[in-house]
Queue: 2 jobs
Job 1
Amino acid sequence: MLDSFILFIKNIILWPPVFYLLIAPGLVTILISLLLLIWAERKIAGRIQMRYGPLEISPKIGGAIQLVADLTRYMLQEIIIPRTVDTLPYLIAPIAGFIISLLPVAAIPISPIYFPSPMTNSIIVALALTTLPPILNILAAWASNNKFSLIGGARESFLIAAYELIVILSAIGAMVIYGTSDFTEAVSLQKNLWGIILNPISAIAFYVAVLMATGRFPFEIAEAEAEIVMGAYTEYSGLLYGLSMGISYTRMFVYNVIFSLLFLGGWQPFFTIGGHIFISYVLIPATVVILKALIVSLTMVFTRAIYGRLRIDQALGGAWKFWFLVAIVGLIWGSALTYLQQVI
Amino acid sequence: MGGKYVEKVVPSRNLSLLNKAKNHAEALALGAKFLVRPLRITYRYPIVKEIPDQGYRGLIVLDDNKCIGCSLCARICPASAMKMFQAGEKKLRPAVNYERCVFCGYCVDICPENALKHARTHDVVFESGESMLYIGEKFTLDPDTQILSGKVRIYRVRVDEKRGLIYEPIR
Ligand code: SF4
Ligand code: SF4
């Protein structure tokens, strides 16, 4: 009886959709990497700005569990709902935003044979799903009924128009080379040569567009703390505020998983340990992908300490007049490579 | 007299793409340098203490044996923080109220017997108004001895040409 129950639970957890959304690279992994990334961001900024960063909670390990303390505080804090907000969309926006920013995971495989849903165009589906969360951001801005929120939402909607195209064009620049829109196949084609070497132009454009999409410096325009308090999330408090802070980090992590699959060779170098199917086909590739995504994310949080914040017109001008062209050049470069390969 | 109109537009620097890329690379390299070898100018306050140089105007300490009860300190005090109190038969002793004291140091300067001195620390927290009055025995305790014992690391601040302030451990 008990044995069959444990087997049942194990089967449910190892069922790919559940495993992907809950464990890796889903909720559990993302929460852990969130703790790590936010701590690293504060620590890096501290070191570069000639101070210590978080330290007081656990001096022995450099304040690494500071975020746990912060989370506890958010959970115990009262959630104040202002009288003038549209209550239902106001409550839905951060919660749905957090969940939806996790959703692309449903189309991102992190192992060659164990994927969440078998599909042949997973890159397109994943990219389509990453475009959803900003809508919730704008919804939060609209529902908050506050001018700072509204300005933040307006800035976010300007930025979406700028970065979304660059993300998709540079992803297509990689897809053209692999000749497939399936992550599994794209990764297996990168066995010897990673995408970042084949098409560095698209990789750089993708990287910058992700910086812009997830509000990292110097594109932290939609939540510019010194100008518009917290952008669209000005009116939030308590756990809802914690969730809304997590959205941009979750999006960054998901984008970086996509980045490492498209350009950094995914789970390559791939090796197996004989006799351990679960370890060699799920655990090792997942660890490799997540480590790559974490390293890319760390370089992204590193920019906070170095750049100032651009004005919205500077960011939009840079995106449309420069990075858009770079993405198109990357696309042309990818097509040319494919053409040359076919001719020769 | 009308003011003069000043064009407050900074001309664009018009850097070439190569120059921009170079500037970005320089900024990133500088950040990486600081990340690997941080030059911290802050210190961990409650664990590490900074001890100021001689002449720092900290809390005031009375040497009861030297004081002759002349009341000059109470008279000079610009904030009326120093007051004389009866301490036994025909004996006057000063007491200080830190609610009023502005740490000007006049009382220390004027004392003919050098009975007052500044401690080299400022770090006190008061829980109530009464505890801010230092009278009798309490006024004669040197707060430095309490702070310099205990498990703190003592730092001294030094001005460096390259970095600004530096905190150097002296114990
Ligand atoms: S330091 Fe100045 S204000 Fe304080 S007790 Fe002495 S004379 Fe008065
Ligand atoms: S001036 Fe000096 S000697 Fe005179 S009462 Fe004050 S502490 Fe005592």
Job 2
Amino acid sequence: MADEIVDVLIIGAGASGAAAAWSLADTGMHIMCMEQGGWTRQSEYATNFRNWEVRRGKQLQSSPNIRGLKTDYPINDKESPISIVNFNGVGGSTVLFSAHFPRFHPSDFRVKTLDGVADDWPIDYFQLEPYYQENDRIIGVSGLDGDPAYPDKKLPLPPIPISKMGNVIGRGFNKLGWHWWPSDAAIISQAYEGREGCINLGPCNSGCSQGAKSSADVSYWPLALRKGVELKTNCRVREITINDQGMATGVIYYDDEGNEREQKAEVVIVACNGVGTPRLLLNSRSSQFPDGLANRSGLVGKNLMLHPWNVMDGFFDEGLESHLGPQGSCVLSQQFYETDPTRDFDRGYGIQVTRGSPPIATAINGYARGDIPWGRGHHEAFRKHFGTNISVSICIEDLPELHNSVTLDSDLTDGNGIPAPRINYRISENSQKMLAHARIKSRELLEAAGAWKIHDHGQIQYAGWHLLGTARMGTDPNNSVVNEWGRSHDVKNLFIVDGSLFVTSAAGNPTTTIQALALYVADAIKKNLTNLFD
Amino acid sequence: MTDDKIIQTDHPLSEDQKSVLDALLNLIIPSSGDGRMPGAAEMDFLGYLVGDESGFLPKLVQVLNAIVDAADSSHGKSFTEINESDQLDLVNSLRSSKGELFNRLTNQVMACYYQDDRVMRGLGLEPRPPFPKGNQVDEGDLSLLEPVRQRGEIWRKV
Ligand SMILES: Cc1cc2nc3c(=O)[nH]c(=O)nc-3n(C[C@H](O)[C@H](O)[C@H](O)COP(=O)(O)OP(=O)(O)OC[C@H]3O[C@@H](n4cnc5c(N)ncnc54)[C@H](O)[C@@H]3O)c2cc1C
């Protein structure tokens, strides 16, 4: 049975879907968002409980394959050295994200022109800048103005404390003459717009019990719902339907009881992230689109970029209380962000300095490394490793490559029988060279800061948190899936607003750019309402 | 009576196994000489395992049986009757042949130990969940950014 036709149907209530819904609500149209998961409750997050460290390892695991909730879909990522992590529910992956929030640089939109690699974006930094700003204002972003690595930007809230560990690593950066700055964070450092400020609970990536992390469920969604957006949870979309004219007509979805249903819509917006979006488009096959909807370019699911990630820990003599504070946000460095022709790789990487480990993680990881033994030496070794470590993460710019892809698995399905995505991904030679360079520099930094011991965790497997590039934007329909404002080249009432749009990945966490893009696409829809399908 | 209680009083180990477990736990984390940190045997490790639902309990029984057998065949005594240094040698030789099992055991012991109230206090931490009280952290010294400011803009113009 078909439900009443809506003006706009957004699929996915994560970072991008929420931003688009909020923006489009200005039109007074009937906006519906369908989300396969439900709401999570702050009172259920791990940090409410005495045994929070053990709980966080089990509850809301970031790997959907391990988490295995009914609302999750499995992902076959056996052919990838990086495993996909996400969250499926209202707020999407921001429920578990670390809220590190660096913007792209102007150069990131022009890599072909500047460095002769990949492609330029069809838009530039300055077109996106007002949307970055609007997003910062709506969700509440904290940071320190004046970062010389960026064009001037003003953030609504003061920075998250860098704490003692920030001083130590900052002195290390200064000794080397490298850039560093307090991280921009999607965390409200003080009370903001009816939400209480951050109280340094620690593990932002287990869900924020305080609601100070600006995940989309606590930032955009309350506002969008107040503006009249209809959010239907526990509804999993199987496919987008089209008519004879090749226009999207709505979706077929499964409700919470597993009933197959239909929802008609005038406009369909896909916001299922860089894996969920190509999966849905590829599963929406028809005689007009035998290779998947909006896929005449053949690029749906191609060019997956994942940001290979290296982590190195340094241990220091003084007590830094580094186990306290928002785990993912302390300081960053963009010293090696831009291309340098004297290096043996194209483009660059960002350095994200994150906080230390809480007690159980310190003990277990220390034991695994051989640093914290059994027996008499245990307590002394623990004392030397607890609250004294600083973590240096490397986010390298992953360049698009056709063979890195999301396709449909021929065997694996989700609970509704929808084919699961399959990831084929290799870390390129350029990325390997960058990782090698970054390892040397991470060590140099930790040594300059005075670490007495350094442990290189290497490239991390469960680091597929940035899912980008699988339905990229561009002006040429042969070389891109959507146009310069997010509309499918092939289906004129179908839009994409999530990380799939990215032409290149830059060298930093993408969500501020994803949300700015979603606001930009929504604004383009609003501006073009009268001739939207021309 | 709660379900928890029934499980916890329905002891899954024999008295002998329990004594071996206590000795083993104190080999893993003994109490600190200064009395600040308790030994791991002072924790309710079994209660933790039962509540944890990790399914490790049968594995623990395997570990304990292996220790009992090894003590019997190498010393002709029960594990608790041999001295601490021989206990350690014996367990270390088992650790090299059953590494995975002992690693899992160690992780479980660490997880149980490092959330115990006495341990938290010994570390100078408050035994409570992070929420709602939260934590104080030092603001940090933003004047350290002066050299970065002085070097001026570094973003690449396009
Ligand atoms: C552990 C972790 C840490 C991270 N840390 C950071 C960080 O510090 N900084 C940063 O910038 N980014 C970080 N990220 C990434 C960030 O969360 C994502 O970039 C962002 O959420 C992507 O937004 P999105 O809208 O593209 O997708 P998502 O937020 O993933 O939302 C997609 C939504 O679509 C829904 N959906 C998918 N398919 C269907 C379907 N068929 N039917 C109905 N609904 C569907 C999903 O359930 C999901 O809710 C992190 C992610 C993780 C998992």
